[in-house]
TrEMBL record:
Pathway(s) served: Purine metabolism; IMP biosynthesis via de novo pathway; N(2)-formyl-N(1)-(5-phospho-D-ribosyl)glycinamide from N(1)-(5-phospho-D-ribosyl)glycinamide (10-formyl THF route): step 1/1
Name this polypeptide is given: Phosphoribosylglycinamide formyltransferase
Entry's Gene Ontology cellular component terms: cytosol
Molecular function in Gene Ontology: phosphoribosylglycinamide formyltransferase activity
Signal peptide extent: none
InterPro entries hit by this protein: Formyl_transf_N, Formyl_transf_N_sf, GART
Annotated site location: Raises pKa of active site His: D164
Catalytic reactions on record: N(1)-(5-phospho-beta-D-ribosyl)glycinamide + (6R)-10-formyltetrahydrofolate = N(2)-formyl-N(1)-(5-phospho-beta-D-ribosyl)glycinamide + (6S)-5,6,7,8-tetrahydrofolate + H(+)
Family: Belongs to the GART family.
Name of a matching Pfam family: Formyl_trans_N
EC number(s) stated in the UniProt entry for this protein: 2.1.2.2
Natural source organism: Cohnella luojiensis
Annotated CDD domains: FMT_core_GART
HAMAP family xref list: PurN
Amino acid sequence: MISSNGAGEAATAPTEPSAPIKIAVFASGNGSNFQALAESVRDGKINATLELVVCDKPSAYVLERARSFQVETYVFSPKEYPSREAYEAEIVAKLQAAGIDLIVMAGYMRLVTNVLVEPYYGRMINVHPALLPAFTGIKGVEQALEYGAKITGATVHFVDGGMDTGPIIAQKAVEIQDRDTLETLSARIQQAEYDLLPTVVGWFADGRVALNGRKVTINN
Ligand code: GAR
């Protein structure tokens, strides 16, 4: 908007700060990535609000973490539903009621169907503990270690209907040392994730992520 300052000169009105984006985190277990993200949001590093944690395991520790950050939780038991589509339809209703802008999958150990992908493609991301397209699926850390790879890492990518196949947004490399065990390597990859995931979510909050086919660019 252009307004006059009374002296005959045009002055540009200050830009309105954009509204915080509303985030839902999907998780199945410990939730340390949720924790890293929640701390970044709490500390004002990301222009977002955490609205919801969606979890498929009633005993998952992520639920305690969500409570401690006063984030609402939605817990479901997949075996109580006839199909993935059936529980996802309920999740979508919940997400839409909460006005969710971005879904962050952080240790959510389930494939998703078109029921979720169609309404949220381009607004749904996942963190994976390997450098995709290598070592997809579960046990990404173990796979890299057993394969004898020298470099692995963490990837944040868009979620499509496949297993870790969506367009890659950002990656961080981690060197594998000869003395690494599953525990030591997992710990270093997780440290990389705690940095990478909040950074990427911050890009979304600032409207910087552009998706064009398989290519993702981050605008300044
Ligand atoms: C994370 O390391 C994430 O990359 C991995 O699960 C872990 C969850 O840890 N995800 C996958 O393997 C998905 N294929 P957290 O619950 O402590 O955040």
